[in-house]
Amino acid sequence: MFTMIRPLAALALAILAMIAAEAYRPLYAEDATLGAFSLWLALIAMSVGYSFLGSRIGRGGPVMTIFYALQAVALTAVLAAMVFAVRMVFVFGYRRIYREPMDAVSGFIDHTLRFLGKGLDISFLLLLGGGGVAMGIVLHLLFRILEERRLAR
Hints:
By secondary structure, this protein is mainly alpha-helical. It has five helices and no strands. It has helices at residues 5-24, 37-56, 62-94, 101-118, 122-151. It is elongated.
């Protein structure tokens, strides 16, 4: 059944993604152009928060909600790396750097691993982990409040 927790989970994960995007920018060189990185990451996080995290909140205690929130953060990171890797494959294909289809496939894997590898900075991982735990606790409390209100009717 649809509850208000799905849009709240999407909003919470999108806010965490915007904060993480601003912390991810300094990991690149200063002359790197990331474009609308924060916006795209927030949109990916919003879809993961609505479809994955929002549907799993309340299937256990607070520990399971924190676990699902951490899974959603990791899933957002992997999906974002894959989406941005597809973008880079198209850019490199347009510039005729990738001439064969196999170059594009290996380039996709290479760019995905590079995007994920940049995020292995310990302070960035602590930001993601701490944000995921805090988001899980807040979403569990919100879910309990919303469920009590729904069942009181």
